[in-house]
Amino acid sequence: MRKELISANQLFAMIILFEMGTALVVPIGLESGHAVWISILLALPGGVLLYLIYSYLYQQYPNMIISGYTQRILGRFLGWPLSLLYIPIFMYNGSRNLREAGDLLIASSYDQTPIFIINAMMITAVIYVLNKGLEVFSRTAEIYLLIILGMGLICCFVVIAAGLVEFENLFPIHAKDWRDALTSAYPSIWTFPYGELVCFTTILPHINKFRVAQRTGIAAIILSGLLLSFTHAIEISVLGTNIYARATFPLFTTITLVNLANFIQRLDALVILTLIIGVFFKMTIYCYAAMTVTADLFKVKDARKLAVPIGIVVLFSSFISAENYPIHLDEGKVFMKYILTYMCAAVPILLFIVHYIRKCLGLLR
Amino acid sequence: MMSISSSLTDNLDQLRERLGNSPDIIIRKFTLMSAQIQVAAIYVEGLIEKAVVEEFVGHMMSIDSFDGKHPEIISAKDIFAFMKEKARNVSEEKIIKDWDVLFEALFSGNTILLIDGIGEAIRGNTSGGEVRSVTEATTQVAIRGSKESFTESLGTNLSLVRRKIKSPNLWIETMKIGDVTQTNVSLMYIHGIVNDKALQALKKKLQAIDVDAILESGYIEQLIEENVFSPFPTLYNTERPDSVAGNILEGRVAIFVDGTPFVLIAPTSFFMFFHAVEDYYQRFDISTFIRLLRFMCLIISLFGPAVFIAALNFHQEMIPTSLLINLASQREGVPFPAFIEALMMEVTFEIIREAGIRMPSPIGQTVSIIGGLVLGQAAVQAGIISPAMVIVVSLTGISSFATPAFNMALSIRILRFTIMFVAAFMGLYGISILLFILIAHMCSLRSLGFPYMSPLGPFIAENHRDSIIRVPLKFMSKRPRLVNQKNITRMAVDKGKRGDSDES
After folding, report:
1. CA B265 – CA B277 distance, rounded (Å)
2. Where are the bilayer-spanning segments (chain B) (predicted)?
């Protein structure tokens, strides 16, 4: 099979859509109160560093995905089970995103529709795109990046034009706030959304040049970090810390407040659309990552065959894993703290260190 | 393959038998006085120009008028040699040895000369006959720009483009496709500008075609397109010579098919179907505005009724209160759900449109006007349809006419129904899910190996000068880049410059 190649633009679009996916809509880093936007910025360097590690590993093993070089670095007996762990984690993370989208949709206007139908439709689209391959997916991402940015501009404009922004909600920032911001930045925001980029270790081998991958990746992460910080700053400035912390979907609440000239109002559809698009891309990337890792570990020749089984597992785990939304959020905290941090940050850092030591000792190759 | 025998009577019998004594095959027999040798001239009535045939035959038979000047001509061989020489003077001469070639020449409008005692035939090009003259374009009308359009004659069509591009690099290749129809299919491109990879791919595909008949360029289109089950057309068709000229100057290939005024162009991109030649003739601001308008029409004609249904069924909160009350009061007596209402109206609209096309043309217009007005008005008054729905449906219908390419407008019409179904069941969420699938599908399409969504996905910044908007001609100094299959190397089409020559 021909190796699918993706361009810098496409990587850029995918990273931005992935980063903004759900992080744009759900509240992140609640511990820091009104300084969330600062924590997002504080976590940004960490995210870039993490990406540098991913791209370094990619540079060392340009034709391998994460499961490939884990086995190469740690040896087969340690590496194989370790990379096996990535499959359920990618799938669970994907199913979490699906659950969030489904719940927002049910809360907003589909109260009569079972979550199974809503999620199944989304999964259908994901399976379709996965079957078409990464190239098609990345082109789709390019088009949707423009759509998302367009909608973002509209949302920003209407929120500001409606005079909802109150900067008192953002300031003052005391020394204690800085400390809070830092504690929520590391590790919680660091891992979600930045650490989730570990999925891209399966996509990077499709880029021809290392430099391109590194530069565009960093640019995309920085841009998405700034956009996220900006969006959350606006959300807080409009809602105030109190409502922001309590709202399930703060961006949704923010937009519902907009009323321009009694005509431009109820733009919630835009937010829902943003979330759908974000979740779609994030989930497809997770499923793709799970798919390729599975194919790599179990020596499946055509990874696309796995799209349907993985899609179905993700679909069912999306609503079986938690009875209701609060439980889902609770599970999320545990998952993020005890699992995601290790798989996104600790394992790649470990790989990096082991690789470096072995390289220095001349034990590789 | 049967070769021609040397006996004239045998040959003529064979000819009559194989052509089933068709009366339009004219066989004229002459006996040359000088040598008492029989010669036959064969042509098909209607495919030839009478005067040319007379001239050709006259020249050939002029052997008799020499009266002793050519005493050496006594045998059939001599006559054949003489005629061969003569034929070269009169028109392009060619010697035919077997029947298949003979028939092909005969039905292309040639006159065939058979000489008794010689197993070879001489052919002279005398083609002519009735063809439609060049008229104004009927399907792609432009306010400004050349008025001429292609006809059914391949030669005329090729010459119409030749007249616009007077370059030796304008190359034409002709091949015959269709076992029975033996249709001439010509590829036209500009050597040095055309993408060779696309050209080779196209030739390969054309050569692989193995069918009985090619009656219209639509046959070729359906036989060479890559994704048969896609609703989107991947080949562009036009009947305007200036459109063909513009497209081959951008490095594309035009496929002319004998017998149809519609010329195919490949490779295409999705956005090409929303461009009209006039966009380049008008000033850039006007063209840009009109293009944006067309894309808006695309969105309306795809999503208009679907969004309306979704809003009424699922997202009432999206509609401003006063408008919602207004809509609700309109729909008060309507016995159907919004989806059924929309479906009824859309189907009616499609029926009127189809009937308007198929009706004899004098009544066609009337049907559409009467049908549209009366049905719409009556349906509202009868309380079956709400007035708002009539507005939405007619807006959608009119929007779909704004697409310059008719085949694209057709696929949009089909897709609209699908989107309406999904909207009725799942509202805006359904629409956006379908849109994911649709856009992914469009991104997966290729036209001769070129990504269909080309300037957007993959994103090519340079090509955006002429896709959704159009920048001033001065800034369009480069031809659009057609991305090759590997998505990295680009083809070198920068040899020629477009627009002002002093630009870089």
Report:
1. 14
2. 253-274, 295-314, 373-402, 414-440
Tokens of B396: 């959608």
> What domains sit in chain A, N to C, each tagged with a CATH number?
8-360 (1.10.4160.10)
Give Cβ neighbours of residue A40 (< 8 Å, ≥ 6 apart).
A28, A29, A185, A189, A225, A228, A229, A232
Q: Taking a C-beta distance cutoff of 8 angstroms, is the pair B474, B488 a contact?
A: no
Q: Which of A14, A17, A109, A282 to mutate to test the interface with B (most CBs of B within 10 A)?
A: A109
Residue A274 in tokens: 């943003």
Report the C-alpha gap between B471 and A355 in whole angstroms.
52
Show the tokens assigned to B454.
């080309």
End-to-end distance of chain A based on CA atoms, in angstroms? Answer: 27
**Whole-model pTM?**
0.88
Structure tokens at A244: 């922001």
| φ and ψ of A171, to 5 deg | -115, 165
Furthest C-alpha separation in chain A: 71
Helix (H/G/I), strand (E/B), else coil: A190 = helix
Contacts of B271 in chain A (CB under 8 A): none
Burial class (CB in 10 A: 0-12, 13-18, 19+), A281: buried
Q: What is the dihedral of CA A6, A7, A13, A15, to 10 degrees?
A: 70
Distance, in Å, from the CA atom of B125 to the CA atom of B93, rounded to the nearest integer, reads 8
Of A251, A184, A275, residue with least CA distance to A27 = A251
How far is it, in rounded angstroms, from Cα B441 to Cα B443? 5
Tokens of B60: 């050939």
With beta carbons less than 8 A apart as the criterion, state whether A151 and A251 touch: no
Q: What is the pLDDT along chain A (365 residues), one digit of tens a residue?
A: 467 888 899 999 999 999 888 888 777 766 667 788 888 899 999 999 999 999 999 988 888 888 888 898 888 899 999 999 999 999 999 999 899 888 888 888 888 889 999 999 999 999 999 999 999 999 999 999 999 999 988 888 888 888 888 888 887 777 788 888 888 888 788 888 888 889 999 999 998 888 888 999 999 999 999 999 998 888 888 888 888 888 878 888 888 888 887 777 778 888 888 889 999 999 999 999 999 999 999 999 888 889 999 999 999 999 888 888 888 888 888 888 888 888 888 889 999 999 988 888 876 65
CB-nearest partner of B429 from A110, A144, A265: A110
Pairing type for strands B121-125 and B110-115 reads antiparallel
Complex ipTM value: 0.92
DSSP assignment of A297-328, as one string? HTT-S-GGGGHHHHHHHHHHHHHHS-SSHHHH
Contacts of A188 (CB under 8 A, 6+ apart): A28, A29, A31, A336, A337
Q: Name residue, tokens 């859509």.
A: A17
Residue A279 DSSP symbol: H
Q: Which residue from B296, B310, B315, B308 is spatially nearest to B388, judged by alpha carbons? A: B308
Cβ atoms of B477 and B491 within 8 Å: the answer is no
Residues in A touching B436 (Cβ below 8 Å): 125, 128-129, 140, 280
Q: How far is A169 from chain B (nearest CA, A)?
A: 29
**H-only helix segments in B382-455:** 387-401, 406-444
Contacts of B484 (CB under 8 A, 6+ apart): B195, B197, B449, B450, B490, B491
Residue B334 phi/psi, 5-degree rounding, is -75, 125
Identify the residue whose tokens are 């290939």.
Answer: B253
Interface test with A, best of B230, B436, B445, B453 (most A CBs within 10 A): B436
